[in-house]
Write a structure and sequence with these properties.
Number of domains: 1
Structural class: mainly alpha
Order of helices and strands: HH
Distance between the termini: 29 Å
Number of strands: 0
Shape: elongated
Helix content: over 70%
Largest sheet: none
């Protein structure tokens, strides 16, 4: 009797693990840049650093969703 996981279950768990790790990395980077370094906080007026952060946020979210699509399309 073979030992280990079935190949389909292993592929599925790798997809879940990759999705979770990419999502947590994206979240950690955006929290670090936005809240810890203060680029997401608009104080008196909108500054160029706020605009760059929000542009980064949207573009990286699109990249993350595309990555999820590529992981889960098969």
């Amino acid at each position: 009797m073979p030992q280990g996981m079935e190949p389909e279950a292993k592929k599925y768990l790798l997809k879940v693990l990759n999705s979770l790790s990419f999502g947590l990395l994206w979240l950690a980077l955006n929290v670090l840049g936005g809240l810890y370094w203060g680029y997401a906080i608009i104080e008196e007026k909108l500054s160029m650093s706020n605009i760059l952060f929000f542009a980064w946020f949207v573009l990286s979210l699109i990249a993350l969703l595309y990555c999820y699509y590529r992981i889960w399309r098969k």
